[in-house]
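User: I'll paste a sequence; please echo it back and then give the predicted structure.

Assistant: Echoing your sequence first, then the prediction.
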Amino acid sequence: MGHELPSPRTNERRLYQQVADQIRILIQDGAFAPGDRLPAERELAQQLGVSRPSLREALIALEIEGTIEIRMGSGLYVLTSGETRPPRAAIIGDSPVELMQARAVIEGAVVVLAVPRMTQGAVSILRRTVDGMRETIAQGSKPLDHDRLFHTTIAAQSGNSVLARIVGELFDGRHSPISTEFRNRFETVTAWTLALAEHEAILSALEVGDPLLAQALMHVHLDQSKRRWLGSDPR
């Protein structure tokens, strides 16, 4: 008899939701009562045997559903008994970490395809986008539209409409509830200033037509973006 294929529902719950389930069970079992302060992230991650990135995503998901509250400079506090019905994964969104990993894989390949097809017109758009990003940051705002245009313009030069569409869809995953909460808590002017410098470096590699350098810089940019989300303290 052949091996039975796993059910599509086997991995329906994302990893961060599985971690959130563990914390919710602890609360339901009375390990933490409403009003209690949870252990610090590092200690809680060790206690549960999970990574800090997965734990941070789980905590954000639990706050979205109203089970806990993340208080700036104070810690993590239980709000309810944990018996609330958790939102479905499709409502909260994909793991921000997995989105950034997917972007690094796909956009790293896309930029290599884009380099030999890069037109002067596309370079001009990218330069204006970088300039607009700088001006928006100087005004104290988040240049999300400029950021999106930078990445989708490069993808459009790949010559592959499917890849270009995927890049846009992955970027728009930033608008899900969980990714939006990450942006609100961890994206600062300093973080955006660093992202601007990374965009400028990528643009310079595109201007000189170096595909391997452009690919390396794209990987660095997306990896650093992920680290800025996961290495910062909530605001």
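The mean pLDDT is 89. The domain at 94-231 is CATH 1.20.120.530 (Four Helix Bundle (Hemerythrin (Met), subunit A)).
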